[in-house]
């Protein structure tokens, strides 16, 4: 593809002109004309001054990310590699650049240091950043932010065309009545909490009381399973208590991944539990 024709393709507001290459394609990665997921296509000719950014989210994709970096160097002199698995403090969030349109992040880091979470190691303590528009909130711990910041986030959400989805999770330790008052002023699509261990079950009554005005279809819960010492039977019991015959939250089981160069494959022992409790249609079925 000639350089001039490539430049004339659909422009993305706020992205400037750059190519982004993703080592893994997920539901969150962009799909615009400047997003790629492998080595440069044979038809492509990149303008000399156009930078190429290689994004690596998972540690097991670092090797692939380095290979992609080498491949794209034949197309551009300005090639760099980064992403959550590479390290380095992330800056302000730019919508559509490394996450698809609609997703926003308004804070970085987290004040907590949970042993199973890498956020505090990679991003450090909590810091508030510029509030970019979006309806899917992907902050690590939005509710740990200041009162003023959270109010501005909800003000932004009130202007969105789609109902808000708190995919990053709502920390029950910080959740209070004034948050609920703000939530009732906007349209809600999904409210997510997390229950990553047996200790988290003790917080469920508080979460149910505060979020009980929304139907269970909008009340979701991340459930970490498969970590050291966990068993399919124990994970099954946690998910059942979280679901509580549709009086609680819809569990979403997440198989624990170590920050290593090799991704953990769901074992045969865990396959049924993970598959069932990550699909509401499966565990809600009367069959």
Short summary:
With 287 residues, the chain is an alpha/beta fold. It contains nine helices and twelve strands. It has a four-stranded parallel beta sheet with strand order 2-1-3-4, with helices on one face. It has a four-stranded parallel beta sheet with strand order 9-10-11-12.
CATH class value of the largest domain? Alpha Beta
Which shape, going by the Cα principal axes? globular
The appropriate CATH architecture of the largest domain is Alpha-Beta Horseshoe
Approximately what portion of the residues adopt beta-strand conformation?
Answer: 15-25%
Summed over residues and divided by their number, the pLDDT gives a mean of 89
Largest sheet: 4 strands, parallel
Uncertain ranges: 1-15
CATH topology label of the largest domain = pyruvate-formate lyase- activating enzyme
Radius of gyration: 21 Å
- Please indicate the count of domains: 2
Which structural class matches the secondary elements? alpha/beta
Measured between the Cα atoms of the first and last residue, the distance is 54 Å
Which sequence of SSEs, written as H and E, runs from N to C? HEEEHEEEHEEHEHEHEHEHH
Task: Output the number of helix runs.
Answer: 9
- Say how many strands there are: 12
- Name the strands of the widest sheet in spatial order: 2-1-3-4
The helicity comes to: 25-40%
């Amino acid at each position: 593809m000639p350089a001039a024709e490539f430049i004339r393709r659909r422009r993305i507001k706020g992205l400037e002109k750059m190519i982004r290459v993703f080592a893994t394609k997920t539901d969150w990665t962009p799909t615009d004309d400047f997003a790629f997921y492998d080595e440069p296509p044979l038809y492509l000719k990149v303008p000399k001054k156009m930078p190429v950014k290689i994004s690596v989210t998972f540690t097991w994709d670092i090797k692939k990310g380095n290979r992609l970096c080498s491949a794209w160097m034949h197309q551009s002199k300005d090639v760099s590699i980064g992403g959550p698995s590479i390290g380095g403090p992330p800056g302000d969030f730019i919508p559509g650049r490394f996450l698809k349109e609609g997703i926003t992040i308004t804070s970085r880091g987290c004040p907590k240091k949970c042993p199973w979470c890498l956020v505090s190691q990679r991003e450090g303590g909590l810091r508030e950043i510029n509030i970019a528009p979006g309806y899917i909130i992907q902050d690590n711990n939005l509710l740990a932010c200041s009162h003023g910041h959270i109010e501005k986030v909800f003000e932004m959400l009130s202007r969105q065309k789609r109902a808000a989805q708190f995919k990053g999770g709502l920390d029950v330790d910080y959740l209070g009545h004034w948050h609920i008052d703000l939530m009732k002023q906007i349209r809600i699509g999904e409210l997510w909490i997390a229950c990553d261990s047996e200790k988290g079950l003790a917080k469920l009554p508080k979460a149910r009381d505060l979020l009980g005005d929304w139907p269970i279809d909008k009340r979701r819960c991340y459930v970490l399973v498969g970590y050291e010492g966990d068993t399919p039977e124990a994970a099954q019991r946690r998910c059942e208590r979280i679901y509580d015959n549709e009086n609680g939250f819809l569990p979403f089981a997440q198989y624990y991944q170590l920050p290593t160069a090799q991704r953990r494959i769901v074992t045969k022992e865990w396959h049924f539990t993970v598959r069932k409790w990550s699909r509401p249609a499966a565990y809600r079925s009367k069959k």
